[in-house]
Amino acid sequence: MKPVVKWAGGKTQLLDRLECRMPEEYNRYFEPFIGGGALLLDVSPERAIINDCNIQLLNVYRQIRDGVEDLISIVHEFDAVPCTKERYYEMREAYNRKISGNVQDVECAALTIWINKHCFNGLYRVNKKGSFNVPWNNKQSGDSISEDNLREISDYLRNNDVTILEGDFEAGCEGVGTGDFVYFDSPYVPESDTANFTDYTKTGFEYEDHVRLSRLFRKLSERGAMVMLSNNNVPLVHELYEGFNIYETDVARMINRNADGRKGKEVIITNY
Ligand SMILES: C[S@@+](CC[C@H](N)C(=O)[O-])C[C@H]1O[C@@H](n2cnc3c(N)ncnc32)[C@H](O)[C@@H]1O
């Protein structure tokens, strides 16, 4: 199974390197910053607790689980109309009406998927009022989904013990115990001041959040959980995770401001 949405920081390219660092055995799988869920979908653990603070994204997972056929047919209806500039902005308005009305239904999930395929770089960015404001990517056609992949994800979510939580990562880790595995893939510490990218949702992920995350990493280690984390290879990250195993790795970047910045060094950190 593969991610349904292209997501900033998506881990498809790092899968091999992440999987070879995962423990061979663990009780439950926790992923408190699920995003596009590349690792979860590739590993497909039988018992998992996933979490994110982006409610539109979580609605996509819930609708895939509970109404995959309806979701597929609505996305096909959307795809049947060629995407002109006018069409994109109309659809974006419809999406924003769902967001402002707090309507999380199957149509909203279909819009999230369709917009993700037609917006610039698959970004999810909202303004101060909470309205989605990413421009069109200038692509007129193409399928927004792979039906087989969606059905497979639906079967996976229904036939396994997968809990979907909504909120902050700390709350998403309350249930972590001895022998559980946790993978943290938070928004990254910026590589430099010009690469600051924190607009995942209304609230960015700030310095304090990184400190909070590193404290939680230590706390879960004391609880006997196996914890893995990815981030940029920058001094702050080395400082926050001093004493743990820090592996450096190269990765090609999909979402970045300029082509020169597409190759970057990242780290994978483990407490085991
Ligand atoms: C780097 S992305 C995860 C990418 C994911 N691993 C993938 O393969 O697509 C980070 C995610 O963290 C979420 N996020 C940001 N701040 C958060 C918070 N305080 N608590 C929980 N989730 C948060 C964002 O909505 C985003 O989906």
From TrEMBL:
<dbReference type="GO" id="GO:1904047">
    <property type="term" value="F:S-adenosyl-L-methionine binding"/>
</dbReference>
<dbReference type="GO" id="GO:0009007">
    <property type="term" value="F:site-specific DNA-methyltransferase (adenine-specific) activity"/>
</dbReference>
<dbReference type="InterPro" id="IPR023095">
    <property type="entry name" value="Ade_MeTrfase_dom_2"/>
</dbReference>
<dbReference type="InterPro" id="IPR012263">
    <property type="entry name" value="M_m6A_EcoRV"/>
</dbReference>
<feature type="binding site">
    <location>
        <position position="7"/>
    </location>
    <ligand>
        <name>S-adenosyl-L-methionine</name>
    </ligand>
</feature>
<feature type="binding site">
    <location>
        <position position="11"/>
    </location>
    <ligand>
        <name>S-adenosyl-L-methionine</name>
    </ligand>
</feature>
<dbReference type="InterPro" id="IPR029063">
    <property type="entry name" value="SAM-dependent_MTases_sf"/>
</dbReference>
<dbReference type="Pfam" id="PF02086">
    <property type="entry name" value="MethyltransfD12"/>
</dbReference>
<keyword id="KW-0808">Transferase</keyword>
<dbReference type="InterPro" id="IPR012327">
    <property type="entry name" value="MeTrfase_D12"/>
</dbReference>
<comment type="similarity">
    <text>Belongs to the N(4)/N(6)-methyltransferase family.</text>
</comment>
<protein>
    <recommendedName>
        <fullName>site-specific DNA-methyltransferase (adenine-specific)</fullName>
        <ecNumber>2.1.1.72</ecNumber>
    </recommendedName>
</protein>
<dbReference type="GO" id="GO:0006298">
    <property type="term" value="P:mismatch repair"/>
</dbReference>
<dbReference type="GO" id="GO:0043565">
    <property type="term" value="F:sequence-specific DNA binding"/>
</dbReference>
<keyword id="KW-0949">S-adenosyl-L-methionine</keyword>
<keyword id="KW-0489">Methyltransferase</keyword>
<feature type="binding site">
    <location>
        <position position="185"/>
    </location>
    <ligand>
        <name>S-adenosyl-L-methionine</name>
    </ligand>
</feature>
<dbReference type="GO" id="GO:0032259">
    <property type="term" value="P:methylation"/>
</dbReference>
<feature type="binding site">
    <location>
        <position position="52"/>
    </location>
    <ligand>
        <name>S-adenosyl-L-methionine</name>
    </ligand>
</feature>
<dbReference type="GO" id="GO:0009307">
    <property type="term" value="P:DNA restriction-modification system"/>
</dbReference>
